[in-house]
Predict the structure.
Amino acid sequence: MKLKDIGEFGFIDRIEPLCKIHNPDVLRGIGDDCAVIGISPELNLLVTTDLLVERVHFLLDWQSAQALGAKALAVNLSDIAACGGTPKDVFVSLAVPDHVEINWLENFYKGMSDLSDRFKVSILGGDTTRSLTDLIINITVTGVSKNGETLLRSGAQSGDIIVVSGYLGDSSAGLELLLNSRDVPESIASSLINAQLSPTPHLRQGRSLAQSNACNAAIDISDGLSSDLGHVCKQSRLGATIFEARLPVSEPLKWLAGHLAIDPLEWVLNGGEDYILLAAIKPDKFGEIRLRAAAEGWDLIEIGVFDSTPGIKFVKASGETLPIIPCGWDHFKSEMPFGQI
Ligand SMILES: [Mg+2]
């Protein structure tokens, strides 16, 4: 059996029993956006790590070294955002092949450095070694959150309102444009490609949700809406219903889907790397938190509701209800075709 037969999440299920927890201060190990470790009665330490591999996650000629450095850090900061935390420190490890020049690496660090200034995080170290084939980037970020304000995937309750903090699918549409050059206007292409290459971690949104006392669970959408909502459902032992008519679809995405004569739903439901947040909001607090988000200048979009019926139900604009099988990005199953509906 190969990893591609069981996928990343099947692999995690298999190794989780072997990742024994001997530290009594650990509040959450494998299975959430960050590991959560109690470091005082008031404060939790958050730790997250991500691996980016040339030809699996990116091609060097897709973007500048600076943009890739910023993205590599941004995707880790997004996991801190998903837990409602404040990021603190960064560790960067690289396996560098002969085709990557020193100048490129300096620019990669420039990209990380600029983003670290923006979010006030410190790059503290890491490791560098040689790679015989591709560039491999591993970033680890630590952060903190107040005990009682740490958002996990496992806290959603039946009846909670499902919200997202931005547009869905733009990043995967941008990837489509990078992989297959299309004849599209510059404004459309730049908007979608920018979503793919330069995601902004929703740290402010995560902090606001964490402080609101209105949010029971959160996750960042890195694998795709269907997969990541599926993770919250699994961890919270719930089902969910989402409504096609409420899913936020950007004008550039609508335009591109129309231009290519395809259904944008494939990108919206299963596309990955949006790096927006999905959260479970207590229904009696929804009005309050919607006003709070508006006052703070960020989008909080209601897309559905958690319920106790297993599975994800998708209510089409026509009123028809279909089950959704989570089929977002899985590195080991990437030949899986989009669209299970
Ligand atoms: Mg995540």
Q: What stands out?
A: The domain at 3-146 is CATH 3.30.1330.10 (60s Ribosomal Protein L30; Chain: A;). The longest helix spans residues 65-82. The pocket of magnesium ion is lined by residues 33, 79, 82, 220, 222 (CB under 6 Å). The chain has two domains: 3-146, 153-333.
